[in-house]
């Protein structure tokens, strides 16, 4: 027997399918949610911006175009999402920890393999393909665990968890640039591999899920959901947001170099953007619990576009880019932190894994090609990144607008529910 709970905040009506009553308490708190992802956008992505700057500025692999370099990072991001259904199926069959072990081995092996790369195609296979697979097994394999331990204040809980990728990105950005400058790029890869492997092993040992109690369905796909307008609107929001996010993600370090700053200053910008995410995600999560999920997500996504159009376009000095890195970082990654709660609100817990698999698969496309698009939009003369900045801002604003119909739909549902009561 399940309990159907209808939750109405100021602006939205949310339905959740809870666990059986005999299983629904945890330290006195009902467990509402089964699978709700918290963060992606891994902090390593910001470090790739440092690698990208190094590859381009030093012509590390002669004959390789800048567009080709950009596809390495794009390939990595896209693979994380593209094989999500496979990881979801593996987690259902083998449990939580075996896929995590596979991911940890793949991730460390990819970084070590990249350290020995002599040609660009070897980077595509290691830093691109294999690293993306490893991240997918680690990320997709754990996205449902934190919500299993929380019932109320899910927004702030997810926000705090998502802030971890911001802190990791801050460390990655500064340490990667320092290692490349003071040692070499090969040992930067190897040291990163050792550190990430050690942390992953500790986390895998300590991690604990509640799958035996909650029994999530973990279905890979439900194509019937494609006809639902909610999924189409959220998928479009995610699609456009990823384009804007990725353009910012990989462009900041090279943008710094293009205006005459040093590679170290570029890495600082990436680090501060991660700091902004670490600060902003808990704030977005907290207020999404207070003022309504859609209200906060629309506002944060719109604000990301405003930061790009007003602040990033003015980034002709180090101080201006510092301001954009911190302020922009608070909102540009909203899509990764909030896509799970939004899908949970729209479809409930039983359909969430299938909805996520569809959104992940669709999102693999912009993840793969967004940075190549950004490099193609660069101008041959100053301001080199102006078109990229305008394009990114428009993507965020467009993404926010696609959620407006969903916002009105939720409002109407809340009014109907109020009249019935």
Report on this structure.
- Keywords: Membrane, Transmembrane, Transmembrane helix.
- It is found in: Membrane.
- Its main location: membrane.
- This protein has about 425 residues and is mainly α.
- It has a single domain (about 5-420), classed as Up-down Bundle (Growth Hormone, Chain: A), CATH 1.20.1250.20.
- About 75% of the residues lie in helices and about 5% in strands.
- The chain has 15 helices and 4 strands.
- The chain has helices spanning about 45-60, 65-80, 85-95, 95-115, 120-140, 145-150, 155-180, 185-205, 210-215, 230-260, 265-290, 295-310, 320-330, 335-375, 385-420; strands at about 5-10, 15, 25, 30.
- The strands form 2 sheets. A two-stranded antiparallel sheet has the order 1-2. The chain has a two-stranded antiparallel ribbon with strand order 3-4.
- Strand 3 and strand 4 form a beta hairpin.
- Helix 1 (about 45-60) packs across helix 10 (about 230-260) and helix 12 packs parallel to helix 14.
Strand order of the largest sheet: 1-2
Poorly predicted spans: 1-43
Task: Give the amount of beta strand, in percent.
Answer: under 5%
N-to-C series of helices and strands: EEEEHHHHHHHHHHHHHHH
Distance between the termini: 24 Å
| Quaternary organization | single chain
Largest sheet: 2 strands, antiparallel
CATH class: Mainly Alpha
What is the overall pLDDT average? 80
CATH architecture: Up-down Bundle
By CATH, the superfamily comes out as MFS general substrate transporter like domains
The rounded Rg comes to 21 Å
Shape: globular
Keywords:
421 residues, globular, Growth Hormone, Chain: A, two-stranded antiparallel ribbon, MFS_dom, transmembrane transporter activity, two-stranded antiparallel sheet, MFS, mainly alpha, transmembrane, membrane
